[in-house]
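In this section we turn from sequence analysis to structure. A common task in structural bioinformatics is to predict how a protein folds when a small molecule is present, because the ligand can shape the pocket around it. The inputs are simple: the amino acid sequence and a SMILES string for the ligand, here zinc ion. Study the lines below before reading on.
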Amino acid sequence: MIRKLLVAAVLVLPALQQSEPTVRIGIGQNAATVTVRSSQEFRVQGQPTRSARFAPIISVGDAADGTVIARDQLRYRMAVELDGNRYLVVPIATHIRIQPPSTSVRLQVADRSYRGTVEVFGNARNTLTVVNELPLEEYLLGVVPNELSPSTFGQLEALKAQAVAARTYIVKNMGQYRAEGFDICDTDQCQVYFGAGTEDPLSSRAVTETRGVVATYNGQPINALYSSTCGGRTESSENIFEEKLPYLVSVMCVFKHPEPRPFKARSFSDFKTTVLAVAGVSNYTELRRFLGVQGTGEPPSSSLAPLSKYLRENFYPGVKPLSDLDFMVEQDILPSTGTVNRNEVLYRMIERKGAFEWQQGVLVSWDGQMMTLTVSGKPTTFRLSPDAPIFFRMGEERTSMTEGSWIGGELFDFRAVNGVIQMVVYRRNFVNATADRYSRLALWQVHKTKQEIEAAFRPLNIGEIRGIRVIQRGPSERPISTEVTGTSGRSTVRALRLRSLLGLRDSMFYFDEERNAQGTLIGMTFYGTGWGHGVGMCQVGAYGMAMDGASYEEILKTYYTGIDLKKMY
Ligand SMILES: [Zn+2]
């Protein structure tokens, strides 16, 4: 989501202005063609049209016919196709400005619509640069919903904090891309801006209600970095970006300790038996009904050969293997020798067919009856059946719980039918008390094979990788300096470089090395928390703080140490 870099310190800080600035956003930097459209007529160099397709073209005079010329003798111009049937040709560097026919009409560029003016011009690479010029506050309307989703993280105070951070970021970094003809870019290298089509009433309200407000330190706008999920504690800027800033120091991602809400449930025996009880399956006839499979009858015997024939014919009728038993062993449903336990077979059939329809979600709220879980990024409310078995999972072990409490942020595996949860397996999130516990990304785990590790560290040029050792961890426990040892040397890498070499979501992680009997590194597993660089405001943490009642000012002052909020205009 966010991957922005600190800007070189040579930039001149703008003074706090008195009126709303106009900003120029680079919405295309290397386009081969660009099409601008509108529902109403607009003008290109005085020519009326409803569509304008821009393309650089090579132009050489008649004198070049039949001769061989060098690349630098090629001359480029810009052709503009108007309404698909008229052409305008201008010098490639011409800045063509397109005003919308009225302020309520949006210009379409490719598949996005924009407020304000669009400018197209050829750049030094003989490709097209596209700039959207508009008042700063209107720009923010198309940034905030893309940086913090109002549907997933719909808390007004969090969105207001995001609006102030985004406003401060552009004020501070205005002109960063001046050489390219605009102020800042529209990707996660700067701030994600997708134009007017992504605006949302709640995030627009957050922008309007904080109009002109920026975060300052010593009277100047701060470099308001932010990232998705810090994983419990943010990191100091010098440990990630090599620049120390007094307001970007490591802080705990906590507002106030949330109130745990108790739950009670009946006691259940082991996990598999409970799954079968919830499914209502105690024999093969009931299994057939649960899986929605036709047919009747139970297996003639529980010995492997007749049972495997029965299972294959009833549940895999389309498969014609050479050996039914080999097939069922391959499916991991029957053992190749010995005796079988009927419940084990029934359970494995349900699992293999995905018939229990487990869903996964992160607990957002729970009032003793109703629970809201973030499922596939969307908050969804369910009723917890009073009969629902509740299991706690730690590693592969699942324990039936008769009482306990949840505070939100727990990861749930559950089965729901018509909005009613019938069974729950929850995992304690180890960043549980932190404000960013609601993120699906608060915990992650990535396994890398020996080949993947070799490929990742190839740029270090130190031969076959022997091992990795953390030399220093920062206050948030991110490994800020790590030594990688290979057969032909060793190399020390800093946090951001290590994360990008390994392609991990966050620089905050621990790892286990896997070695074979000879001691050779054969793989690694990385266990991490969070997503992003972890410096500055934690976006999901801002949402969590708002859920716990924090104002946008409290949110900003938590993540940016020693700041003040000032109204620029
Ligand atoms: Zn956080």
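Residues 33-59+72-126 form one domain. As an exercise, try to locate the residues that line the zinc ion site and compare them with your own expectations.
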